Amino acid sequence: MATKKTKEVVEEVKPKTAKVKKIKVEEPVVEVKKSWLEEARERANAKYNK
Amino acid sequence: MDILNWLYLRKEQLIRTTANNPETDLVAIGADVTFAKRDDKYKTYAMPIKDLVAAGSVANTGSYELDLGVTNVVTVTTQKGIIDITNITYISSPDPAFASAELIYINNPELDLTVANRENIYIQYSVYYSPEFDDTAIPYVLATGVVTTGLEFSIFNANPSVAGANQWFGAFYLYYELYTK
To answer: Cα separations (Å) of B140 from B97, B99, B132, B153?
Structure first.
């Protein structure tokens, strides 16, 4: 009786390397806007607390 | 006239929460009239309840001036008052149409005007402004905080019109009522 020989084939699977596209991400500049009250306080301090 | 006797008043249920007639009910008062009159220097007289309350209110009203050319803090000593705000032209703004504010402070050193006591501070105020000719300013005053120098008020100009030659030269008064619980 013939026996089938099984052959173990180990294929080396190379992981596909995804191409990384470099994108320049500019960080948004968060402008801290003072309230009208803060501005008024600064102005008052400058004027009266010399 | 009955001699004042607390036991009698209680017994006869004469302790009331409303006046019988505030226009005629009298309250006895001792007036300080110098030692020449009596040994204890007090002379007794009476006032109707209505007048008594009004007289006390008037006595608790003071007049103050806040010269913005010198300071922006007015120190008060009475529960109510009239603050004459002068020299507002010394400050460059407030600009038209609520664009900016100028700050003033009302301080009463006898009161606890701290942030921790904010919920016990009672304040009422109203504004008088009579503009000069060629003066487009319309003051709008907003209470904006409790700070170390007292209660802070922001003065805006509500009018969007361009400032006139006599901008802020009008008569400017702030009336207030201030006390703490």
So the answer is: 10, 12, 17, 10
**Would you call B100 and A36 a contact, using CB atoms and an 8 Å cutoff?**
yes
Which of 89-118 (B) contact A at CB < 8 A? 91, 93, 100-103
Cα gap B118→B122, rounded to integer Å = 9
Record the pTM: 0.80
ipTM, interface predicted TM-score of the complex:
0.78
Question: B103, A44: Cβ pair inside 8 Å?
Answer: yes
* Dist. CA B116–CA B123, nearest whole Å: 16
User: Which residue from B91, B100, B145 is facing A47, i.e. has the nearest CB?
Assistant: B91
Q: What is the pLDDT along chain B (181 residues), one digit of tens a residue?
A: 566 788 888 898 989 999 999 999 999 998 888 766 556 788 889 999 999 999 999 999 999 999 999 999 999 999 999 999 999 888 777 899 999 999 999 999 999 999 999 999 999 999 999 999 999 999 999 999 888 878 999 999 999 999 999 999 999 999 999 999 9
Measured in Å, how far apart are chain A's first and last C-alpha atoms?
110
Among B114, B56, B104, B60, CA closest to B82: B60
Interface of B with A in 10-69 (CB under 8 A): none
Per-residue CA distances from B126 to B10, B71, B82, B171 (Å): 43, 21, 10, 14
Distance from CA of B87 to the nearest CA of A (A): 14
Please judge whether B102 and A39 are an interchain contact, meaning their C-beta atoms are less than 8 angstroms apart. no
